Amino acid sequence: MLSVWALQRSSTGICRLRCLHTSAITSAAQVASSSKTTTPAECAPPKWTPDSLRTGVIARKRGMIAMWNDQGARFPVTVLQLENCQVTANIRTIRRDHTEYHAVQVAASDRPVKTTTRQMLGHFRRAGVPPKRIVKEFPVTPDAHVPVGTTLSAIHFVPGQYVDVIANSIGKGFQGGMKRWGFHGLAASHGVSISHRSSGSAGNSQDPGRVWPGKKMAGRMGNKRVTTQNLAVVRVDSALDLIFVRGNIPGVDNAQVLIRDAKKKMNALSSHNQAKGLYEKVLPKGVDDLPFPAGTAELAKTLPPVIEAPAYRRSPFTPPE
Description:
InterPro entries: Ribosomal_uL3 (IPR000597), Ribosomal_uL3_bac/org-type (IPR019927), Ribosomal_uL3_CS (IPR019926), Transl_B-barrel_sf (IPR009000). It holds the Pfam family Ribosomal_L3. Belongs to the universal ribosomal protein uL3 family. There is one protein chain. The chain is mainly beta. The protein has one domain (4-28, 41-172, 220-307): Beta Barrel (Elongation Factor Tu (Ef-tu), domain 3). Helices cover 12% and strands 32% of the residues. The strands form three sheets. The chain has a six-stranded antiparallel beta barrel with strand order 3-4-12-11-8-13. The protein has a three-stranded antiparallel sheet with strand order 5-6-7, covered by helices on one side. The radius of gyration is 24 Å and the shape is globular. Residues 1-14 and 18-36 have low confidence and may be disordered.
């Protein structure tokens, strides 16, 4: 079961997103193999709803480029690339409070067999995928499980939607209070003796006679898990598995990052009573549906290799097709 997107081709030759609509595609082999009669409701593919929580993907941060919108305004874009991102497991557990936890385990970036532990080799062998360098799991709703071994494509995200990117920030080493926390510093005038960038008093003398827990002081900065929220997807290249995200994200180049649907822009709105069932209150304008339960490599073959949002155009630094 796949999803088909309606696209329109611009004068530059790049297909731009016009509207998204989910439709059922049944192959001839599936029809021939099915012996019993099925109803249209049983043949219908799973459809995305505002209450659905899809899996995320693992990608590499390749760098940044510049793009221009239809008004000629320049903005930065971060290029993320998927490296053979595949599903390795579907997780379902029962918590102590008798609630169910559902997740999809995803692995990416192939690695040699000789550098992989035997435990992980057995895990990947059961999933039918080659050894991977990084394995992560994404919480999903019960209807968003993906078959094990499925190869995820950049088409999993629709140009125009918003995503959250999770990565480790660049380590800055030991830094003072001004750089680490944005402190104002002391006065740069007479009477301040070599303390212009000092953090000032850290305690309150005898009462309480100690430093409060959580006090912002000098220390190691960076190298922490950081989530950058509500970044717009401006272009998707399924041929090279590239996702062009507007803005900057944490981490160094070639670092592994996690990409998921924006919670505050999309999924969090669905919990509001007025937003349930109203797609226009959850998805951005111009996006009517999302590939569900995931955008696969098979779906990418049925679509043009490059798709971009209507409000953006290609960078002049991108070579012509």
